[in-house]
Amino acid sequence: MVLRSTSKRISYSAKFKLNVISYAKEHGNRAAEKQFGPTPAVCMIRQWRKQEEQLLKMPKQKKALRGKPAKWLDLEQRLNTWITEQRQSGLCVSTKLIQCQARMFASRMKIVGFTGKAKWCFNFMKREGLAMRAQKMPPVYEEKIQQFHSYVIQLRKKYPKKVKLETWMRCLSILMCLSIELLI
């Protein structure tokens, strides 16, 4: 049976990490672990010592060097620019649209292994400081959606048994991904 600690994970500022590093340089990693408490384990101190130069360059109160860096930096910069342009032109950008556009950019940039799943999208948005709330919808979006619905209803009446509802939903998702005249 493994006993787990009930304490929460702790994040450390750059100033704290630098204090631990300087103490560890003089007295060793294990002594630093004992001095600063049980939470900064030896493996953490070892990792911080490798990151010392980066820690010296950043603000002392910042919770420093947490999380993974972006794997496809060029793709993310290009996507961030695209999102900013879309929002400035008054278009609403959803997470599905971001994922579609990211996959499109990745294929154009010949990036192998990029899937652009929802988790990647949310992590990207967190890294870039983007949010979904407080986006203004275009002024004619309701009219465009009603036009699309009436178009789908007409086609379903014209071809009642030939095309399933799932096919129409796929068409809708493709149109939204490509953002072709649906909300423009």
In brief:
The chain is mostly helical. The protein contains 9 helices and no strands.
How would you describe this protein?
The structure is a single chain. The chain is built from nine helices and no strands. Residues 179-184 have low confidence and may be disordered. The protein starts with 13 loop residues before the first helix and ends in a 6-residue tail after the last helix. It has 184 residues and is mainly alpha-helical.
Overall pLDDT metric: 77
Q: Which stretches are poorly predicted, pLDDT < 50 over at least 5 residues?
A: 179-184
Distance between the terminal alpha carbons, to the nearest Å? 60 Å
Number of strands: 0
Draw up the topology in text:
Elements: H1 14-27, H2 29-35, H3 42-50, H4 52-57, H5 73-88, H6 95-108, H7 118-128, H8 141-158, H9 165-178
Helix pairs in contact: 1-2, 5-6
Name a few traits of the molecule.
184 residues; mainly alpha; 9 helices; disordered C terminus; DNA-binding; Homeodomain-like_sf
